[in-house]
Amino acid sequence: MNRHIWILTGISTLIIVAALLLAPFAQPAGYHHFADQRGFLGIPNFNDVASNLAFLFSGTAGLIFLWSVHQDPAQTTFQDRRESLPYWVLFSAIASVAFGSIYYHWTPDIDHLLWDRLPIVIAITALLSATLVERISRDAGLWALPLLVVLAVLSVLYWYWTEQQGAGNLNFYIVMQFYSILLIVWISLRFPSRYTHGNGIYQIIALYAAAKVFEMLDAQIFAWTNGWISGHTLKHLVAAFAAYGIVRVLRKREAVKLC
Fold it and tell me: How many CA atoms lie within 13 A of 187 on its CB side?
């Protein structure tokens, strides 16, 4: 098991270093020009703003569930209560996405985007930590949690700093978001979970991938639906539903009984 941890650590370190050394990938100039810019009740970009409340619902639902678990001495969700730590970070970050993304979509620009991206990448790295805990090593996953969160924050701050220097570089941020997701999938395929319903992670990742596709098809979906909903609004709703899927898995699972 230690060999797998060292291999993952080595490969991940090389990928992060490569991201910092490769030619910078800049923020697309038209990123802030979303398809649905309609206001309502004095709120600009209303649908993209209001749809973020779905993240607040999912994150809060997760935090309430964790609190109920910690009040229940007979709980079966965690073999060791320390294993809930990545989920506290995860659901806190998901709830924070609502505020960061509302702040950004109210006035879309680079300065506001910083607060949108921070909780997103923190949530993803917290899920990676939880995956390590449940499939490879409890101690390694818990040890990795603060390191992953720090790297997540640094990836966003580094991107923002490069933007202020006039040469934006998304490489580090892209690695922390998408390489973390790839690692979650690879670890889940390679190592069984110590809990039932472990396969639920694939549905969650698939929904998040669909949300990213909707994001890329923002204007097209807005046109296809005759202005009823844009791809970016749909992205918020689907990604929040994916986050709620984690709550559903935790509610149902229990430790796998060894024969």
Answer: 29
Nearest to 77 by CA among 130, 26, 155: 130
DSSP state of 26: P
Among 91, 152, 142, 144, CA closest to 122: 152
- pLDDT (tens digit per residue) in 24-63: 777 877 889 999 999 999 999 999 999 999 999 999 999 9
CB-based contacts of 225: which residues, under 8 Å, 6+ apart?
none
Pick from 220, 235, 243: which is nearest to 101 by CA? 235
Cβ contact 230:36 at 8 Å: yes
On whether the CB atoms of residues 202 and 15 are closer than 8 A, the answer is no
Rounded Cα distance between 6 and 109, Å, is: 40
What pLDDT, in 10s, does the model give residues 94-104?
Answer: 999 999 999 99
